[in-house]
Amino acid sequence: MKRKILLYLLALFLFTVLGTGFATLYIINTTGTLSRLVKLHQIENLRQDLIVSIQAVQSDLYTVNTALGRQLDDISDRVNRLNRASANCTSCHHSPEISAQLNTIRSMILEYEQDLSYYITASANSRHILKLKMEASATGNKLLVETEKMSIQASSRLENMTRDVMSKIKKAWVIIFGMMIATFVFGTAIALQLTAAITRPITILVEATRRIAAGELGYQVVVADKTEFGELSSNFNIMSAALKDGYAKLETEIAERKNTEEALRESEERYALAARGANDGLWDWDLRTNTIYYSPRWKTMLGFGDLEIANAPEEWLGRVHPDDRVALEAMIAAHLTGGSQPFEGEFRIRQKDGAYGWVLNRGMAVRGKTGQAYRMAGSQTDITSRKRVEAQLLYDAFHDALTGLPNRALFMDRLQHTIDTAKRRSDSLFAVLFLDMDRFKVINDSLGHLAGDQLLIAVGKKVSGCLRPGDTVA
Questions:
Q1: What is the pLDDT of residues 375-428, one digit of tens each?
Q2: Cys-Cys crosslink for 298: which of 180, 279, 294, 423, Cβ 3.0 to 4.6 Å?
Q3: Under 8 Å CB-to-CB from 434, ≥6 apart: which residues?
Q4: How many CB atoms within 10 Å of residue 459?
Q5: Of 280, 270, 267, nearest in space to 362 by CA
Q6: Which of 299, 317, 41 shows the shortest CA–CA distance to 158?
Q7: Distances (CA, A) of 204 to 165, 217, 262, 441
Q8: Which residues pair with 366 in a beta bridge?
């Protein structure tokens, strides 16, 4: 289309230049004719000056010796002016025919001037005055006739040339107006052609875009154009077909995504139900942003509300018992640096009321293609009750149920430990005291077993009160 516009504008420019050049040449020709017409006017003025001057000289020549006659100096002055006038005109550029006539008149003026000069010079000699006077008069009459003849020819030529010039001027105006009208018509035709060449494809493409916007995907346009609009139409058809295919694929993907989202939603529901049923707190650690998501159950496990704990790692690690934090961080670091097995650890964590409870933490890292962990998620289980039971079982296994004193198993363990210490250190001394209560069976038989148990408890407390730190009563 750019090439077409440039060609149209170039054609309009060439047409305008040619028309302007033609009109200019015609006007130059007309100007030359006007120049010649001006020169003819100059010749006519010369003719009038010559006739007046010659008539004046002739009149003075015939009345030279009369009372009305002029002086010879005046006649000589008039002749000189006549000579200068003819010299000025012959110095101009005229056609060869006019130049020949002017040269003839110039020669006759010189001859007339010579005859007058003879007459003026010989005027003192009466024998030659009449003869010279007649000769000068005859030359002047001849000059008048020739000047009159030239005047008639010049007047006729002037009239014809004036008529020709006016005709050419009218033609020049006609040519100029004709060129203006032709340029306007030609420019209008080019504008209409360009408008049709541009607006028609654009209208078709706009209509096509409206149909596609209305949902008529795959709509095709037909533009028989070899310019950019033709290429645009081809690309538009390709785009329309691609949109139709892409929309079909998109519908399929949307349906698949809906099914996937539905399955994911069901999976999330199952996961949420399982998490609530397991009564565990969940956490999700984004290692790229160093933020942790804590589930509501994780927070309530410590006695906090949903908005009372931020998503910072320190909200978790900062509440771990100082004696357990180093071990926990070491387990997490070991797992992140390459451990393939999920990390698992038991530690104490501070609750909202300040007391420490036991929790079991499990986690697993998610790694990228390079093996670098970028995410870690896991669960937290409250095992405080279990720890209490374990501690009670351990206590019961090594202590007497009635008196609360260490039993035989704990006594033997501590005794063995003391013996091993004494073997390593020669200055280590220890003693074992065995106490027995005589006639204890009498108390059981007379007062009952309850009284016997109370006696055992009282004796145990009394003996425990006599111990030093490090001593054991069992």
A1: 999 889 888 888 899 888 888 888 998 988 999 999 999 999 999 998 998 888
A2: 294
A3: none
A4: 15
A5: 280
A6: 41
A7: 58, 16, 44, 120
A8: 375
